Amino acid sequence: MDLSTEPAKVRAAEAARTSYGRLVALLAAADGDVPAAEDALADAFERALTRWPVDGVPANPDAWLLTVARNRRRDRWRSAAERSTTTLDPIRDAQVHIDHIDPDEIEDRRLALMMVCAHPAINTAMHTPLMLNTVLGFTADQIGRAFSVPTPTMAARLVRAKRRIKAARIPFVIPDAAALPSRMAAVLEGVYGAFAIDWHSAGTATRDSLTAEALHLAETLSALVPDDAEAHGLAALINLSNARLPARFDVHGRLVPLAEQDTTRWDQHLIDRGISHLHAAHRIGELGRFQLEAAISSLHCAGRVSGTTDWPAIRDLYRVLRAVAPTLGGAVALTAVTAEVDGAQAALTMLDDLGDTTGHFQPAWSTRAHLLEQLGRADESAAAYDKAISLTTDPAERAYLLARLARLT
After folding, report:
1. Are residues 198 and 243 in contact, defined by beta-carbon separation less than 8 angstroms?
2. How much is the pTM?
3. How many Å apart are CA 8 and CA 317, to the nearest integer?
4. What is the DSSP letter of 59?
5. What CATH class has 108-184?
6. Domain spanning 331-409: which CATH class is it, in words?
7. Tens of pLDDT along 134-167?
8. Could you tell me which of 349, 19, 7 has the C-alpha nearest to residue 216?
């Protein structure tokens, strides 16, 4: 038993990262009351921060948290029963199923909870945000930034969506073959959202566990629906991206851009796994966004072997991606790749053509700053770097941009 305070806090934080969605799914499965499950789990974490530094970290933190949360739910249920005008029998009516839950002995219910979040009874626009919050533990603030929605607005929408789960009595099950395809797109977006938010905002505090969770869920989905090309595409994308994680930061925690990474540190096993998923998707013959993004990553990985990146092929893939799934991020990435093929001026013209849509989009400003720097327009580049820095919340990326600006000026 470790009686020091700091290890106890670290273990509690680790449990919050790795087990939050799993424990919420277990606690809410019977009655669909997600807010009550989250409240009980929050109480359990609060108690862990009080007791673990004194009593030591338990051998099975998840089971400890689940027991405390389970007892909180039962206590609140009894309190509600006492206030109710209807006579309830605590033995007959209580949620006794919770007493028999062992997180190490039952199946993971997170995928079932993701299917609940993608149910037709819930507003379609909230499917992905609800998964990110309920299953993967992202805050309303993080999700709001990702969706360009004010935090209070996103928080209110999440509360309404969770209440809808209980009111509609949505069962916590993976739907049958007939209903599954209609929810798969939303579930894939939820897993991709977790990966993307973590990838672009992790910095020196990369949540390895959450990155691993996104990969685990993507692999599970591709096994659950092996004939879904985009499930394989998403698994390929996350594998290929995660393969580069060891080289994204140097020993001092500084961000290392792709072009400067030590490719010998890339994980060949993950690269091979990603390529295998791409081949599986290709055999199915249904093109989609995740497959295209994975194919782009595969070309970067191929450049590791050949020593030369095939920029024209990457540009062609980005053009197809923009036609299949047009996004502002994809459009800005296309301009950056165009610079590698046709030069900085051609790329800057493309970026200008995007107009006002790039106003508060940080990648557009960092790309503009880099292009202007290449063109020797130092003052304009510095202004663009300033704007990009003002829009950057990730510490490692902010430090990288500040260093570029300092070198420029």
Report:
1. no
2. 0.78
3. 47
4. S
5. mainly alpha
6. mainly alpha
7. 887 888 988 887 787 899 999 999 999 999 998 8
8. 19
